[in-house]
Amino acid sequence: MAGGRATGPSLPRRWFAIPLWRRVVGGLLVGVLLGLFWPAAAPWIAFVGEVFVRLIRMLVVPIVFVSIASGVTALADPRRLGSVGGRTVMLFAATTACAVSIGMALGLLIGPGTGAALGGAVPHALGEAKSLHDQLIGIVPVNIVAALVEGDMLAIIFFAMLFGFGVILAGEEGRPMADMLQSAGRVLFHLVRIVMEITPFGVLALIAKAVADNGVAVFNNIGWLAVCVLLGVVAQILLVHLPLIRLVARLSVRRFFRAAVDPLLVAFSTASSAATLPVALRVAQEELEIEPAIASTVLPIGASIGKDGTAMYVGLLSIFSLQALGVEPDRSMLAIMLLTGSLAAFGTAPIPSASLFMLAAVLSAVGIAPEHTALVVGFVLPFDRLLDMTRTVASASANLTVTAMVARQEKMSPAGMTDAIPAGDDPVSRAP
């Protein structure tokens, strides 16, 4: 209007225009300041943190079931069900199990969760331990509805995988159900986005209470957790991927990682395996000279199930959670956590901080109550963006590693992939 003042974007628009991670960091800083300088206010906003924790608990079961079931049905593509698909799934299962083991070992060795203050959570006392026989039998649910209601994660994972295979075996008649699962996954993705918009306020309330109760010492555990994540990524690449590249894929390690720099950088900057896929496809075909039929089959599967970084993080965070809750794991618990963590990592959905939601599957299997798991999620979530960027590097490295191994084993890559190629003919060495 003439003579009137120009108005800018409304306050809500300006708020949502800020990237979520920045809003979360802002909520974190405000919570710290509030807890330090006005601790009496923390109890008044504690209900916001409680609502946030309940929303996380609400999403865990549907995310676990839909993610795993839809992930299984996604392998129904005929190109993915041959020998290439079989080798790919088996190799990713092996690297995933190694990643969970590395994460758990680092957690036990360094103890990042010891003494953590999870918003006032008390040490969790476990009931009488089940025998190994009862635990294994309990994987098969008598009543899946009861398992869903009770949050019995091992039973839910088992039924979800079985359900997904049933959809595949149904063929064309199962196609509507497969489409429905994919659609449900997309709906859940948007539902998580809605819940994530509340994250800055939930984080503010949870951190304010934690700082008011315990001071800034609460951040010591997060620092050690970040150190463990970095060590875990380095260990997974050096101890698992590097030997596989050299001994199984028969590639020069130096050449492989020179070619992999771009995908690894994209993985770190985006914290997304899916976003890394186009770059990884180009590198695999043009610089590692892997047959396009192999690369275009293995890498998309890897973007769905090749989650070495997530697997390592789930194993590490499970130990972190037990330490924070004052639980001393025995061998039986560690074995169950290894199995459940590997399965949960396979079914991790491509949604923000999905590994934190999958944590419930692991902890529930060893008797940790959902409300305690949700407190761990609320405690770690403010810092998860940087941790997510770091661990995605291991997942991107795993995808290229498995692709190179499958190409070698299927004998579909040209001879130029091996180290026998003269240095002057190496396309990587000729690259500017």
Question: What this model shows, in words?
Answer:
The protein has a single domain (18-430), classed as Proton glutamate symport protein. The protein has 19 helices and no strands. It has helices at 11-17, 20-37, 42-73, 83-110, 132-137, 144-150, 153-169, 175-196, 199-214, 218-248, 253-270, 273-287, 292-305, 308-324, 331-346, 354-365, 370-380, 384-410, 427-430. The longest helix has 32 residues, at 42-73.
What is the CATH topology classification name? Proton glutamate symport protein
CATH architecture: Orthogonal Bundle
Helix tally?
19
Distance between the termini: 57 Å
The CATH homologous superfamily is called Sodium:dicarboxylate symporter
Beta-strand percent range: under 5%
Order of helices and strands: HHHHHHHHHHHHHHHHHHH
Low-confidence regions? 122-129, 412-432
Range of helix content = over 70%
The SS-based structural class is mainly alpha
- Average the pLDDT over all residues and give the rounded result: 77
CATH class: Mainly Alpha
Q: Domain count, please report it.
A: 1
Largest sheet: none
Which overall shape is indicated by the principal axes computed on the Cα atoms?
globular
Give me the Rg, rounded: 23 Å
Which helices and strands occur, and which strands form pairs?
Elements: H1 11-17, H2 20-37, H3 42-73, H4 83-110, H5 132-137, H6 144-150, H7 153-169, H8 175-196, H9 199-214, H10 218-248, H11 253-270, H12 273-287, H13 292-305, H14 308-324, H15 331-346, H16 354-365, H17 370-380, H18 384-410, H19 427-430
